[in-house]
Model the fold of this input.
Amino acid sequence: MSIFVEDLTHIYMPGTPFETKALDGINLRIDKGEMIGLIGPTGCGKSTIIQHFNGLLKPTAGRIQIDGLDLSLMKGNHLRKLRQKVGLVFQFPEEQLFEQTVFEDISFGPRNLGVAQEEIAERVRWAMEVVGLDYDELYHRSPFNLSGGQMRRVAIAGVLAMRPQILILDEPTAGLDPQGRDELFKQIRCLWRKLNLTVVLVSHHLTEVATHADRIVVMHQGKIVLDGKPGRVFEKVDILREIGLGVPMVTDILSHLNQRGWSLPVDVLTEEEAAIQIAKQWHARQDLS
Amino acid sequence: MLKDITVGQYLPGDSFLHRLNPRTKIVVTTLLMVAIFLIVDGPGLVGLGLLLGLIYVLSGLPGLMLLKGLRPLVLILIIALPLQILFTPGEVLYYLGPFMVTREGIYQASLLTYRLAALIMLTSFLTLTTSPVALTDGLERILKPLEKIRVPAHELALMSTIALRFIPIFAEEAEKIMKAQKARGADFDSGNLLVRVRNLVSILVPLLISAFRRADELAMAMEARCYRGGDNRTRLNLWRMRLPDYLTLILGVGVLTYALLGRIY
Done:
């Protein structure tokens, strides 16, 4: 499924002293099967824009189309069907767990959609496997007795069990340890490839997402400032620094070397590649002198 | 929706009302609240309206904000007004099936609306122009004399501030959880009663858990900073009673006296 955003503006609490323009004329097109990283500092509007994708927020101006269907025209049941297709995992999703067992909690979504009992069981098992949870060991346990990382996985499984075609994750790795982060990203990537999903990863951590996404959209103060392949985005080191986003260490080193007269490509993503590039030029310089 | 709850919200500013000593504001608000329920005569009610208008001007608050605060009132009125109108005995104006609409009923109903609206406005003025810290400060100073008879003035004041402070936070949290459950296909607007109650559980349980977690974290943070009650605590801002405070107090006492006299004679 594709997402098409046109001139989207959103203003919170208009007409009050708390009025804030969270989104300012956003134009964005996300095609089916893309893996996108939506990056920006805190308060840039990234959480606001994703809530438009499944109709939780209504635009103040502009419109959103999912697979060519205009969201502003949708109501009630249609909106619920849309929310099945566009799975949204909120920030700290473990805070929305409420059922007595892991099984019950994950099946909340499918149950709301009226999925048959046998199929629910099947989906819960599948969703737990996808996020790396042992079904037989955990399904009857209370979600509140699990570790933080496991709770996060249960919550994500709860959205996956609805079998969405677009998966949006808001800061899915916030508060997880490095190992847990890597694992989660791998699982998401694996899922994306297997089911041909459209995935939107929302984060304020550029480096982390850059290695997993195919395209990066950078937001700042309610506007899109950069949009392109990770390498292309990293080339704009100045812009990234200016809006307060951390630049990957590799990019940082390369751009500093360039300031001292080197001419290295800045769109390199991994340490290995950077090392090779630096070594190459190092030898070339040695030869010259 | 939930974010529109203005109770317990503070709007920073520098108006006459903002600069008033919190003690004065609490005392006068209490006096006026009593007066609102005592006044029944026409001139008194009009005067009360004018007084609220004056406070509004002195508060420098946006009017829309105050009107929004009145919204919860509508729900109470929907339940209370028909009862008042239909079940107050008196001079019958016309019949509505087995019920009758009386002149007294309509009078009582309008009085109720007026009083409740005035009450909410009054308390909104207090909370919107007084920061939570100032509010506790004021409350504590007022309750201080009662410490002699073992009333835990400081603790009471602190508890009420924390409660006030958390109202908007919980409203926000409830909205966030509601959205998250909506994203999982929950429906809070339609369906039969059983389904709705069940769906409500999906908001209440996480909300309750987060309330306990927040309370725990707050207690921990306070202990980590060696917080221990009110003995010998000093304050950054000392509020002094100034001329405007005395004038406001006199006004409050005056209004209450008028209301009391109106009741007696």
